[in-house]
Amino acid sequence: MEPAHTPTTREWFEKLYHELRRRARGELFRHHALTMGATTLLHEAWLRLDGRPLEFASQGELIAYAGRAMRGIVIDHIRARHADKRGGQFDLVPFETLHDLQATRPQELLQIDEALQALAVTDAALAELVELRFFAGLTFVEIGALRGVSERTVQRDWDKARILLFSTLRE
Q: What is the domain extent for residue 75?
């Protein structure tokens, strides 16, 4: 008997390309002021993944890791746009997105990132949950399957993480 073939990062990426691209579109939808496309975001995330000796036991692990990579790219892009030496103090918002109240402003996203880093110091598991849910776009069911816990447990942890983040953001 031959040992079971464990897919490489490249094989997982190729298999999940369309799903990852859909999640990249969702990430960019939340941040309308970004000027990159979903394909660009996904390929930038791939460049961060490629060449690293990473092994993923499941599709969910790759999706979660790619979601974190996309989050990092979005944060880096926002920081670069807001650098004063580049005129980053101005927010350019396309006219057609003014009606969308769900779009997170770049400054708010930076504040969320800082609050998330503070949460990671006190409870790394809750911080990871926020990354998986908010930035990677995983559902409670997907996160539960990835962590080996029930959907209800994930929902309770999500509520706790939101409360902690909200209190940090209010300060």
A: 9-170
